[in-house]
Structures are given as C-alpha cells and as structure tokens.
Write a structure and sequence with these properties.
With about 240 residues, the protein is of the alpha/beta class. It is about 30% helix and about 20% strand. Helix 7 (about 205-215) links the parallel strand 9 (about 195-200) and strand 10 (about 230-235). The chain binds 2-amino-2-deoxy-6-O-phosphono-alpha-D-glucopyranose.
Amino acid sequence: MTTPPGSTVRHLVRDDAGQVADTAADLILDVLETDSAVGLATGSSPLGAYQEIVRRVRLGATASPVARRGFLLDEYLGLPAGDPNTYASVIRREVADALGLDVRGPDGQAADPEQEAERYGREVVAASVAVQVLGIGRNGHLGFNEPGSSLDSQTRVVRLTESTRRDNARFFDSPADVPTHAITQGLATLMQARRLVLIVLGERKAEAVHAALHGPVDPACPASVLQRHPDAYVVTDREAAAAVR
Ligand code: GLP
C-alpha cells in the first residue's frame, strides 16, 4: 500500500480483477451496517466488487442486509423510466436487487432537472452515506463530473463530453442514443461520504490513476479531489497502476 506525499489517499495494487474485487468488497463491507446508506457507481469497474459482496451475503459470510439504501452517483437525463440503460436499472440489476437495497436516485425524466438535481443533492447529504463506490473515466471524471468541474461542485445537471458519450456508446443501440445530459452528484457532494473506494481496472485508465493520485488537486482531473478525503482508497490492478511514478 502506498500513500502519495501530502495526501491520505491509499493506493492498493492487486494482481488481477478478482483480487481487486475482493479487496474492494472488504473495504466496502467494513463500514456498512444494516441501516447504512451506500453510494453506488455504474460502469464495469465496480461490477466484480458488487458480485463479491452478493456472493458473501448469499454464503452467509456477512451480515444480511448489508445496508438499507443505495444512492446513485449519477443518472442520465431523458431516458424513459425503466429503460435498461438508466443507471437506476443498471444498479438494481447488478447489485441492489440481490442485496434488497432500496435504490434512490435522481429522476431522469423530471420536468425541471435543475430542481431535481438540487433535491437529490439534499437527499444524499441528509442520508449520510457510509461509503461511496467510484469508478473513474479515462479523462479523470468521477460520476459525470467531467474535467473542469469545480472541486466544490454540488449535485447538478451536466452536459456529457463527446469522449464520455463515445465511451458509453457500447451500451446503446446507436451512439446517437447516448443521452447528452445527466444529473451527477457533485464533487463536494460525494466527498461527504465517510469513505470513498475508487475501483480501477486496465491500462487505458493508467494515466487517469496517476493524475488522480499524484497530480495536482485540480479540476483538470476531477478524481484528484480524493487526495483531500480523510478515508479514501484507490484499488487497482497492476495495469491501471502502470503509469504511477
Ligand atoms: C460512466 C459513469 C462513471 C464511471 C465511468 C467508467 O461514465 N458515469 O461513474 O466511472 O462510466 O466506467 P467503466 O468502469 O466501465 O470504465
């Protein structure tokens, strides 16, 4: 385990995706109690950890329920409710249903998205999230806080960058179907979770991992805000740690 100078964020490097999932599951379950709120991210990186948590619960190896409510990190705007690509659907399918979590998130069809973002931000803060699970974009984004997002940003409506839309197009029938906007927890919102666990796999994220851990704390790399959190972990495989220098 290494801790960059001047920061308390801890970087745990594991040999493969299975070990990353195992370590991340430990860090998440460690701080959950049966009435906790847990912050859940979409994306492929946290899936192994979610599966590992579900496996342990099914084996009776951990308390069941592990938490009561799951809070989405972000949600697309404009997809029909129940669309399999809404993040609420993804999180229910991948983890929340199996754990019996009540999923809360922004309403992606709200008539007034700005007001909905504010409402959701207040709900998340009031819930006092015990642990927020995170993935990272190749450009260093957290949730949908794209580069340039203020480190003090609140939960809000954001326009997705074209690179993020391209990265996420694989889940949609056509690239044009990827929504252009989303509601994301702000960086200041997610920083209020008592623990942060960022899970990263693969070489294509290596530069983002280096910038997040060792670059300046700067909106150019939104994930660098982790360096200011008192209980933040970054769990990566060797490939994702390859550019750390
Ligand atoms: C989306 C999500 C992010 C996630 C990112 C990376 O953009 N909004 O929260 O971190 O995807 O996804 P993956 O882990 O599949 O690379």
